[in-house]
């Protein structure tokens, strides 16, 4: 009689643990992801990021020297896409910075200029948080329709992140 509560307690603790172990062991968990960008393989944190008084999120284009020499058309397309992304942000424009990493030929860009990042892919867009951590990469696609889908994915991810930060 006295062992029944103890047995009931042990059973109630063991069943969820066994189910969790089984879910991990036999891969019962869903493998779907909700982000459209690609996580970076290594952590990249930008130096002196806090000095610029950044907003919550920054969309940055890596306009490297290799890009200006060999693929200037793709970088100029991405610069135009940066303008379009800023317009598409709508009411969230005040929460997001736009930046160009490297030195594009246009000197009168309205976006924040940052130091070149050699370990990032040229002509790709990056999502950077307010602490200077590069979170997601949105690679450049040669086909215009594919590139537009990548940019729409960036907007969806960004709006989701802004919504999450508002609720916390």
What does the model show?
By secondary structure, this protein is an alpha/beta fold. It is built from four helices and six strands, in the order αββααββββα. The model has no long low-confidence stretch (mean pLDDT 83).
Quick summary of this structure?
The protein is an alpha/beta fold and about 170 residues long. The chain contains 4 helices and 6 strands, in the order αββααββββα. Helices cover about 40% and strands about 15% of the residues.
Secondary structure layout:
Blueprint: H1 3-25, E1 38-39, E2 57-63, H2 65-70, H3 72-88, E3 96-102, E4 112-114, E5 125-129, E6 134-138, H4 144-167
Parallel strand pairs: 2-3, 3-4
Antiparallel strand pairs: 1-6, 2-5, 5-6
Percentage of β-strand residues? 15-25%
Over all CA atoms, what is the radius of gyration?
Answer: 22 Å
Task: Tell me how many strands there are.
Answer: 6
- Give unreliable regions as ranges: none
Estimate the global geometry from the Cα principal axes: elongated
Strand ordering within the main sheet: 1-6-5-2-3-4
Helix vs. strand class? alpha/beta
How would you state the average pLDDT, rounded?
83
What percent of the residues sit in helical stretches (DSSP H or I)? Answer: 40-55%
Q: List the secondary-structure elements in sequence, H or E.
A: HEEHHEEEEH
The number of helical runs is 4
Distance between the termini: 48 Å
Profile the largest sheet.
Answer: 6 strands, mixed
Question: Which features does this protein show?
Answer:
elongated; alpha/beta; 168 residues; six-stranded mixed β-sheet; 4 helices
